[in-house]
Amino acid sequence: MNLRNIAAVPLLLAAAGAGATGVAVQVQDTSGKVLPDAVVYIEGDGIPARAAPREAQIEQKGLKFLPLVTVVQTGATIQFPNNDKVRHHIYSFSPAHKFDQKLYSGQQATPQVFDKAGTVVLGCNIHDKMIAYVRVVDTPYFARTDGAGAARIELPKEGRYTVKVWHYNAAGGGTAEEAVTVKAGAEPATAVFKLAMKPPVAGDPSGL
């Protein structure tokens, strides 16, 4: 369930700048608790593609993948530096990008190109509790919600767009979406999403 164009949401208005063209998004669970690390992205006719997707980095530090959630455009390269004092063996069995990076330390891991849209779950063959998520999207307009569950995406022009939201812990693993109208020179369009979450699991790195 989600709501849109709720101009009275204080958190969104505080983050939104007057006169800009874009969308301000708030993501919560069904009880109203804000959800950090939700992936927000925008699709629509006429969105120009960037010449080259932005490169990203997921480090291993403190026996964790940092960040827990990464979002990149299709075709982006991700670096995997190991900043721990122990070696790691990272892998993914996800259909969107299967790979197996043998034991390594430091900067030795081969960068991976994520050339197919979808969700990629990362693990470590040596440290079972290590997990991270990569969401690969077919648009250059995306963001990840902050600690307040908020995200802001600037757009190149006014128009009718579809805002999509994905969270790794959402029940059913699906993507919520809502249509918004963005007007040039006006307050940003706003959208509030309420997502049903999976039941809490002991040891979940999200703390949900």
Could you explain how this protein is built, in words?
The protein is mainly beta and 208 residues long. Helices cover 3% and strands 44% of the residues. The strands form 5 sheets. Strands 7-13-12-9-10 form a 5-stranded mixed beta sheet, with no helix packed on it. The longest helix is centred in the first third of the chain and has 6 residues, at 10-15.
Topology at a glance:
Elements: E1 2-4, H1 10-15, E2 22-29, E3 39-43, E4 56-57, E5 59-61, E6 64-66, E7 69-73, E8 76-79, E9 88-92, E10 99-104, E11 112-114, E12 118-124, E13 131-137, E14 142-144, E15 150-154, E16 159-166, E17 176-182, E18 189-195
Parallel strand pairs: 2-18, 4-8, 7-13
Antiparallel strand pairs: 1-18, 2-15, 3-14, 3-16, 5-6, 8-11, 9-10, 9-12, 12-13, 16-17
Query: Low-confidence stretches at least 5 residues in length (pLDDT < 50)?
Result: 1-19
C-alpha Rg, in Å? 18 Å
The fraction of residues assigned to DSSP E strands is 35-45%
Quick one: biggest sheet?
5 strands, mixed
Compressed to H and E, one letter per element, the order equals EHEEEEEEEEEEEEEEEEE
